[in-house]
Amino acid sequence: MAQLVSIVVPVFNEEASIGPFHATLESALGKIDADFEILFVDDGSTDSSYRILTELVRKDPRVRAIRFSRNFGSHAALTAGLHECRGDAAVMISVDLQDPPDLIAEFVRTWREGYDVVWGVRGTRDDPWSKALLARTFYGLIRKMAFANYPAEGMDFGLIDRKVINILNNLPEANRFVFALIVWSGFRQTSIHYHRGARKLGVTKWPLGKRIKSALDVIVSFSYLPIRFVSYMGIFVSFASFLYGAFLIVRRVFFGLGGAGWPSIMVAVLFLSGVQLIVLGVLGEYIWRTSDQVRGRPLYIVMEREESKEP
Q: Is the pLDDT assigned to residue 237 strictly greater than 90?
């Protein structure tokens, strides 16, 4: 019996990209000796994306589509795709064609050699310098504060084995960064470098705000460094305040210097107030994510689904 590989594709307002992506993917999959299902997850699109997907379901029996009740985010869409997929392995790929579907054949070959996770790592990229700079900053933070082995150019395209899918499906995290969870899970992982092309259709759905939130999610979920930093900062401020207080006492008692200290008091108050706000902000990030986890709300809500009636 042939192995089944699921292709999980998040979609958000990508009406211009779906058709060309499906055609390119069909051509790539035709060269691989395996069975495939293609699972599109519409993340609450407001354009005609879902209508196009339903038409694809009627034309291609391998295609399935689910639609969220609103936009929950690309990682919720990936999570839903991994929950719904039936394959022995799953390939995660964006619909914008910046990641080449032809590389899936190499993923499958490497997976069959015994690897549980096969990453497509961006060796070079055609993105504008501003986007490339943001990406390097984003992944640099992840490398320094959470995973030192995370590729500097990032990765969101790859294949994972069924055993890894099952692990991810049992993780209850509310604020999730799927790729970091896969790195955290371990197993036999390898990577294949490729050239990431420029987006030719549509616009990016990964703006600065989402990058910042994702970076915070990873850092708070996988790193103790922010809490450790504020602890060290508290020790430093306390020690500096003790030394400054001792200096003022010595200057006053032995040299008769000092008097009205309004400027120095204001500087100290403002400095300590800033430190307190930083500490409260860091604690707030952890508390918010903890409360979000405790609420137990679903990661996504499926509003409707389409799949072929053919066996």
A: no
Whether 160 and 182 have beta carbons less than 8 Å apart is answered as yes
Whether the CB-CB separation of 117 and 160 falls below 8 Å is answered with: yes
φ, ψ (nearest 5 deg) of residue 257? -95, 160
Please determine, for residue 64, whether its predicted confidence score (pLDDT) is greater than 60: yes
**Alpha helical stretches, state H, 113-224:** 129-145, 162-169, 178-185, 208-222
Give pLDDT, residue 191: 84
Q: Residue ranges of the alpha helices (H) in 67-103?
A: 74-84
Concatenate the DSSP letters of all residues of 29-46 into one string. Answer: HTTSSSEEEEEEEE-S-S
DSSP letter at 188? S
262-295 vs 208-222: helix crossing angle, rounded to 10: 80
Provide mean pLDDT across the span 244-257: 70
- Closest residue by Cα to residue 96 from 16, 210, 38, 27: 16
First and final C-alpha spacing in the chain: 16
Return the CATH fold of 4-222+298-307.
Answer: Spore Coat Polysaccharide Biosynthesis Protein SpsA; Chain A (3.90.550)
Whole-angstrom distance, CA of residue 61 vs CA of residue 8: 15
- Coil, helix or strand for 180? helix
- 21 closest CA partner among 121, 84, 100: 100
C-alpha–C-alpha distance, residues 176 and 76, integer Å: 8
